Amino acid sequence: MLIRLPLRLTKNVKLEEYIEKSEIADAGKFWNFDAGNVTVVELPNPDHEVAHTQFTRQFLSAFSNVAIQDDVDNIAGTSCIDGASAKQPDAAFVPVRLPKPSPYPCDLQGNPWPTIVCEVANTQSLSSIFQKVNEFWLRPNRAEDVIVLKLWPWNGLRNAGGNPLRRLTVKYCLILFLFLFICLIVLFSTVL
User: Fold this and answer.
1) Containing structural domain, residue 153
2) 60 in a domain, yes or no?
3) Residues 94-122: what's their mean pLDDT?
4) Which end of the chain is more exposed for a tag (fewer CB within 10 A), N or C?
5) CA gyration radius, the chain
6) CA of 84: how far to CAs of 23, 103, 122, 142, in Å?
7) CA 166 and chain centroid, separation
8) Residue 121 to residue 138: CA distance in whole angstroms
């Protein structure tokens, strides 16, 4: 049976109930809440987990030699709420110097919205992930940058050295993103 995502799980759910149940199921990054509707947007699998874990590791390693006041916090696993919707990023980062409580909080504790969000789309369609990015993360007074990593199925092809071509694509993307993040860090440090 072929399942197309996003798939509506249930409707007429209160935000508080969604937050409680998604935390119990540890499924916030795979579910979305919009106006009482809970949808499955991604199916958990090792590729998805490895992609955002490696991205987070690479991103945070760029901050290993900065002063503590210039550091960033990894806030992945935090549900961000806008009143009618709640979403959890695969990876998200916020400078430690942002004021708390924030004038534009992302959660019930008053924490600021993440500055940089990374979303991994494996089984999720590009149109679905772009809708999530544009209609939630990039609204005014929210995230400043969103990086989408779209994972494609590996077709079994290998290069002349015997390496899977998908791994080469992932390695190229990581190098490209490292370069982009170094540029962002330089820009970010000059702004603050």
Assistant:
1) 44-191
2) yes
3) 89
4) N
5) 18
6) 18, 18, 26, 15
7) 21
8) 17
Give rounded-to-5 percent helix, strand, coil for the chain: 35, 20, 45
For residue 116, give Cα distances in angstroms to 113, 133, 137, 144, 188: 9, 12, 10, 6, 11
Task: Assess if residue 147 is contained within a domain.
Answer: yes
> Residue 72's closest CA among 53, 56, 88?
56
* Angle between helices 165-191 and 46-61 in degrees, nearest 10: 40
What confidence tier does 136 reach under pLDDT thresholds 50, 70, 90?
A: very high
Higher-pLDDT residue of 64 and 163 is 64
Query: Are 28 and 22 a contacting pair, CB within 8 Å?
Result: yes
32-57 burial, b at 16+ Cβ within 10 Å, e below that, comes to bbbeebbbbbbeeeeebeebbeebbe
Strand-pairing partners, residue 105, are 112
